[in-house]
Write a structure and sequence with these properties.
globular; alpha+beta; 4 helices; 35% strand; seven-stranded antiparallel sheet
């Protein structure tokens, strides 16, 4: 992956954000810090793009947000990517797939998409120890995706956030 790129993120309502933050705080209290990007709202990454797509993405985000209703989302699962990423997974609905599809045509770096909200990125031995902390602090819940944002990474630069209708 290149050092600098753009990410389109689906962000949650305040209640969902609080519930996910509570789980992350339980990890910090237990001594887990990880390598995930700090100071970002919880989110689902909808796509990653080359830097030269910024203007096009700003227009696209405004258009999509202005035509998309808030998406109800259920969180029922804890998951792993290998043993280095621990996440909470929303149930994938047609509405969420349709939203991601709006930004999928140029998904960069050859990655496939899986809806998730990262809780911790670390070494396998750390993830294995952190898994019970997340499990003990997680109960299924529902919330909403209520906005789409655009960030540039490394360094992190906030570009835009647009509320869904």
């Amino acid at each position: 992956m290149k050092d600098r790129f753009l990410c389109v993120l689906a962000q949650y309502d305040n209640g969902t954000e609080r519930k996910l933050n509570k789980i992350q705080k339980s990890l910090v209290r237990a001594g887990f810090v990880g390598r995930q990007t700090a100071n970002l709202p919880n989110h689902i990454t909808l796509g990653t793009f080359e830097l030269d797509k910024e203007h096009e993405l700003v227009k696209r985000i405004k258009q999509v947000a202005g035509n998309t209703h808030k998406i109800q989302t259920s969180f029922n699962n804890i998951g792993l990517f290998g043993m280095e990423v621990l996440f909470i997974a929303p149930s994938v609905t047609h509405e969420l797939l349709d939203l991601q599809k709006e930004f999928n045509n140029q998904f960069a770096y050859g990655k496939s998409w899986a809806a998730h909200t990262t809780m911790l990125i670390d070494n396998p031995d750390v993830i294995q120890k952190a898994l019970p902390v997340v499990s003990d602090n997680f109960t299924p819940f529902s919330g909403y995706i209520e906005s789409i944002s655009l960030y540039e990474f490394w360094p992190t630069r906030f570009i835009l956030e647009e509320k869904l209708i």
